[in-house]
């Protein structure tokens, strides 16, 4: 039951992130990227903080603050910053292909840091889903030729750092609630990304935010796409092995494309449905094949 609940949380997070790009694209016409990221973290921290206080959750001990700081730095500042830089400097197809390596890195970190065992079933599920991504984006020589080396390296950094964040988050939830982990990581995200945002505003000043739709978009990105989705992602990793949870990363582009098709009348090619079916098949294998291993609560080390 915990495994299915974890699958639900991870799918919910992926669905939210998959659908946030329409809102982000609109808001970014008025607010510079890193400034928007900091606003998201601030709003998320306020919302999560209020819930944390209302729930009288367990605060993080002094000796574990360092781990929370690393979570905020790696998962928020480095990963999101590298994703922005890589997307700007590289091509869209390279971005899709390179960042799809995140689940493989999650599996590697799961083995190294969590001592998880990789079963044949997990390998098959990951291989099917990864191949599905290739079908969706239509990998070809010309598609992969675009973008600079620096941009591609930033994308690799984004993939690796997100994988490390996901596994470190699972380690943290062995001792603390997913709510506490998400809150503290968000707070440190503000601390580390704030100075970059101030520098950015000297280069790319924000436009006057008189449009109420911009403010609604910022609130949505902060409350739903950051506070909600990051909590769901961390909760899902708490309930599942990292190597099993990793594959849900692939659900994001599938649900995002489907929402674009349903809401924005965007056109989808046949390869999307074939690749999407492969991705969902990998997710189904991960979700419904019995696994004897399970999460255990223990101290952070």
UniProtKB/TrEMBL annotation:
It is a multi-pass membrane protein. Keywords: Membrane, Transmembrane, Transmembrane helix. The keyword Transferase does not apply. The keyword Membrane applies. The chain crosses the membrane at residues 7-28, 34-55, 67-86, 92-114, 123-141, 147-168, 180-201, 213-233, 245-264, 270-289. GO terms for cellular component: membrane. It is found in: Membrane. Its main location: membrane. Pfam families: EamA. Residues 5-137, 150-287 form the EamA domain. Belongs to the EamA transporter family. This is EamA domain-containing protein. It comes from Desulfotomaculum nigrificans (strain DSM 14880 / VKM B-2319 / CO-1-SRB) (Desulfotomaculum carboxydivorans).
């Amino acid at each position: 039951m915990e495994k299915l609940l974890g699958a639900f949380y991870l799918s919910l997070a992926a669905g939210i992130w998959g659908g946030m790009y329409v809102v982000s694209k609109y808001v970014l016409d008025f607010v510079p990227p890193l400034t928007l990221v900091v606003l998201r973290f601030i709003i998320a921290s306020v919302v999560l903080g209020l819930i944390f206080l209302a729930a009288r959750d367990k605060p993080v001990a002094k000796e574990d603050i360092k781990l929370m700081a690393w979570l905020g730095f790696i998962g928020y500042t480095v990963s999101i910053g590298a994703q922005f830089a890589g997307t700007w400097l590289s091509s869209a197809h390279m971005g899709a292909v390179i960042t799809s390596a995140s689940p493989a890195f999650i599996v590697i970190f799961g083995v190294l840091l969590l001592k998880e065992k990789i079963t044949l079933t997990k390998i098959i599920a990951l291989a099917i889903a990864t191949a599905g991504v290739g079908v969706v984006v239509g990998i070809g020589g010309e598609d992969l030729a675009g973008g600079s080396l620096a941009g591609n390296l930033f994308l690799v950094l984004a993939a690796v750092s997100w994988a490390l964040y996901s596994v470190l988050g699972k380690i943290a939830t062995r001792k603390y609630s997913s709510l506490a982990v998400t809150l503290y990581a968000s707070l440190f995200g503000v601390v580390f990304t704030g100075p970059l945002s101030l520098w950015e505003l000297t280069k790319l000043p924000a436009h006057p935010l008189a449009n109420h739709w911009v403010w609604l978009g910022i609130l949505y990105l902060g409350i739903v796409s950051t506070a909600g989705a990051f909590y769901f992602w961390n909760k899902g990793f708490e309930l599942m092995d990292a190597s099993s949870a990793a594959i849900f990363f692939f659900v994001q582009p599938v649900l995002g494309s489907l929402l674009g098709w349903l809401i924005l009348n965007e056109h989808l090619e046949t390869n999307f449905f074939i690749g999407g079916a492969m991705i969902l098949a990998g997710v189904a294998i991960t979700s419904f094949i019995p696994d004897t291993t399970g999460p255990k609560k223990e101290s952070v080390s």
